Amino acid sequence: MVDFPALGLFVAVLLNFQQVDTAGEVLSRQDAGKCKRNEVFNTISLQCIPCEEQHGLASVDGASCVCAPHYKMVKWDGAGTPVCERCAENHIVTLDGLDCVPCNFTNLQINNNYNESKICSPCSASEIRVERSLNGTLNSFAYCLQCAPNFIPSPDKTECTRCPIIPSFENCTCPLISHELVNKIYCIPRTYLLDFPDDRSTYTVEYSSGVKVDSTFLRNNLRLAAYQCKLKNHSACQAVANMCVMVMFRDGYRGSPCNFFRDAKHIPTSEAGHLPWIFYGDGDAQTVLSKKKIMSTYSLDSSSKNNIVNLTAAKFAPTGQLLGLAPATLDLLSLCSGSWGPIRFGAHFKQDCVVPANMIFSVGQAATFYELYLQYWDKGESVLYALPVLVLNLKDGTRYPNKEADKLGWQLVRRFFLSEAVSGLRNKPDSEGNPDIEETKIPVVLQYAKSLSLRIKVQSGIDIGKVYPPLLIIEYAELSGEQLKNNVMVPLHVDISFESENKLAHAIEVSIIVLSVVSIVWAGIQTLSYSRRAGKVGVDHASLFRLVLLACGRLSDSFFVTVAGAATHTFLFYKGQSVPHMLLPGPYEEYLISTYVIVAFSLKFVEVACMIWHQISIDIFLMDWERPRASGNLPRPQVNGSSSLHNTVPESHKVSIWRTYFVANEWNEIQTVRKTSLSLQLLVVMLCLKVFGWEKWTLAVPDSSFLSPGFTGLSPSNLICRFALAILVYLGVYVLQWLFLVGLYERFFKNFIQDFVDVCSMANVSVFILALENFGYYVHGRSVHGFADTDMQTMLGQLQREEDDLVGHRGLLPSTEQQTFQMMIPSQLRACYRKVMAPLTLSIAPSSKRLSSITAQRKPLGTTVDRSVQAYHSMNKLLAAFLEHALKDLDYEVRSKLFLESVLDMEFAQTQDKGVLYIDNGHSFDAVLFYGNEWTLLTFDLMLFTFIDLMCNNYLLAAIITGLVAEALVFTRKVGGRKNLAKKTLIDERFLI
Predict the structure, then answer these.
(1) Which sequence ranges are marked TM in the entry (predicted)?
(2) What's the whole-model pTM score?
């Protein structure tokens, strides 16, 4: 059995002692790098083999032997080894090693190396050895030739070349006392480089992220370009300008390329020098952006030739060469992929995209610097107008002046880039301490334009159609080398917007102030009316609180109507004009409209909440006019709560309760009925906006038809257009629905409010509503037949007699049809009402899901039920007596309201002793129902719809939330109204279906 560990140990010992097996199985390991100068490394035996005498040296790569210094190469043998031949006495091998040539005997000297007796002495550093004539034949002897001034020997000593040192000096030397050797070949006077010392800080780029990079590009180009620019080299000056852009126009340190332009911060004149125009003057932004030197007149008509904004860009390479002029279309201004063509006048453009970092890096490797011009024709001549650039990253000390709102502090510039990966390449010193480029081409930091916005402001007045100088606003961001290696996704933003000189914000603010004053005055009048109806003799906390609530509703309407009118006016003019009288407002106007919509909705929500609370807390009583016509046998509980059941009330006093239950259920059903259907409303609105495609009108394109040829698919959805379109479509659909339902359906098919009044007349039940202390509504339901508890045949006969006009009229007053009234009741009647109805405030038996639970709870609740029933009968008699003028000290009169009373919704009559019933429009009592508050509910729904869309920019989501909130309001109103109805009318809630 073989012992493998022992065998391995034996092999290792053999290798350690470098014992070479004759069969070549075990080799002595040697390193090729340790071979001597006259040895080569044999790749078969892995050994260093010495060269023969004639091959005195190894080749540079150490793979083969070459001829010795005094040997010429004759040929190559089959194994790839040169065949060498010794040169004769007094001859020397030519520089190419292929021939021997004699040398001048005066230059012979003794040398014992390689058995040579005599060789030519070497030429000096300023000489070359001449061995051949111009046609390649050998000279009779080799000799040394002195190079002419400003020429030096080439590295192989075969020819004289012109000195690479610029400017050249005699003997090709640079006097380091007065000059400096830049980039090893340029000799520059030190006086030209005083502002750019050979210091690390001169080449260091400090980025916004705080990273500092010793830039290779600045090391190789800054000082030389600065020197050449002082000599008025235009390309060099352009290179310095590009480096100023790379450092984000920072000039607060010595060695900054922007220092070159510190004294040139102004708009150049026609006699401008060699420096390129990089900076505008300090504080000149307001003046520059207000100039009226652009003579071109533009049109919003998509078929007009003046509908295109022609931008031209001058492109520069990083080293300053002009790459030419090119049209600055949307494709050029965006790093996002796509093709969009020219810029249409008046059409806003917006694009947000996410691109991989490698794509931005590929653009930045061949960084291009731009200067933007507006091109137009003036009297047949093509004109280029230079456009300013606002770089938000420009830093002045610790400030970023271009991010501030005050234009006086802005520093406008001319040049920009989209991506540059040039300045971020870091220098790496070599073994001798000289700077060298890192092997990797990935920069430490890459700068790119994260956001690019073009703002074009249109003039007004006599210069309508002309524009002020467009402004390009750029914000840069950075990518680290690690992010580039990971190829992260980078978000980008590009937008083009048009503004005009409009007074929309001023008009909104003035209108808001005026309407707010009117609203508060109107709220004060309503509060006064409230105080009179509530029986208050002075101003108290309740009145002030009511004033605040009323002011919320009126201010809400004022705010919303104002901004809705402004937005609609802007939208219609913008979409319908061909001459640019009005363009879409700017961000401030959008912010103003959004703010007022939010405030208006908040105030409207308070108004709606208070309206619902008021409606579910009113006092309501169903007054039965029926007189007993038959007796019954049903027992009832005793007043004293005893368990013995016997009838103490005459049977002739009993009437059916089902008519009252029927009226109560009808009232319960109409509490949340509205004049229009919200579900149908939202469905049709979504059909118009989404299915029919009307939503495209929200795009910031000045077209009355979104199907026009000039339609721009990537134009953004404008906030004001969305707001205005939502209002127009919503109100348009609502008006059509209202005309159909109110003008046609309710007139000829079904009117819920009138049907309720008819039901009251058929049931012989009147409705007595007290919305406030002394104010309420009365629905006269007394049957003209005197009774309603009857069979079907009798009921049909009564209706037929009424159709034949054989009975009296239903009105409260004889020979009238007026059944509904507003009423101001005497304070004494209100006191009696409160006193009589006090038992109704006591707890009634809790509702049960099963009617059989009455029996189980009858015994302990007998006293409470009896008191409530007795209070009901007492209240019924009191109100019947009041309405029949049967009370001596409590009476009323019926009359119409004065014109001013109707306008102000206020009653002037004094009602301490005598009440007043005002003839109304036939349905004034709907003020305590949803039906009579349609304006409030309509504006709430519309405000909610537009509010959600402004927040989420989604019509469908706005419709869904509006529908859900409306259902929540309906549910709250139904539940609260049901409980209040059961509590105030003694109707068991379980009978309210």
Answers:
(1) 723-745, 928-948, 954-971
(2) 0.73
